[in-house]
Amino acid sequence: MSxxxxxxxxxQLREAEPTWLVGFSDISTLITPLTLLTGTATVxxxxxxxxxxxxxxxxxxxLDIVAAPPGYRFTQASSVRHRTTGFDDFAAFPxxxxxxxxxxxxxxxxxxxxxxxxxxxLIGGCIETLCNLxxxxxxxxxxxxxxxxxxxxxxxVEAAGHDAFTICGNLHGMRLAGFFDRxxxxxxxxxxxADNTSLxxxxxxxxxxxxxxxxxxxxxxxxxxPPYMPIVxxxxxxxxxxxxxxxxxxxLD
Length: 253
Hints:
Blueprint: H1 10-15, E1 22-23, H2 28-38, E2 42-44, H3 62-66, E3 73-77, E4 81-82, E5 103-104, E6 108-109, E7 116-126, H4 127-130, H5 141-148, E8 153-158, H6 164-176, E9 183-189, H7 201-209, E10 216-220, E11 231-233, E12 236-241, E13 246-251
Parallel strand pairs: 1-2, 7-8, 8-9, 9-10
Antiparallel strand pairs: 2-11, 3-13, 4-5, 6-10, 7-12, 12-13
Helix pairs in contact: 6-7
């Protein structure tokens, strides 16, 4: 995808009739710059092979979101359970529709204790792909905030598979490049990526981003661990995290 980015005619994309682009992981390299450079909303959500699964209570399908009218407001909450191991064999079981959600777990505040309420335009994606664009014109989050969301952003990130040391370095680089400068809160996806002996994935996030002094909410369903919480880049978001509820509201305005 990095090969493709400089070949696109961004002026024509900006003038074209918008259409939805949906996906996560590698596709972050395209959908996040598309929102930042053109203002077109994109969906960081589950890919094609995960689409037929039944959506757990509290979450929505990306199909419902892209079919919604302008101004639509929707709330998603922690799914309470997630999948820790393995993948379904689609060749052997082509009709599988239920996730094997084998482990409990809710959202976690990393930086402090206490309730969190924060608002702002949503922007983000996969750490391992976006770190390669940090500091370039294709990932100018600060300009996006100035032009579209002067009151700040909700920035979300997620680790696909790199170990904690690598993720820590990637996040430091993104921070130094200004990716988190306008964040009112940082949302971090749950990951099965490896910890290191002296550094966990949670500690990697805190080491890189703790100095920003904004709330950091981890173990959200916006990463490579099923189930999936679709997040709309460019939507207005409000996150609430407390002992009684954990939810993200998005408005397609």
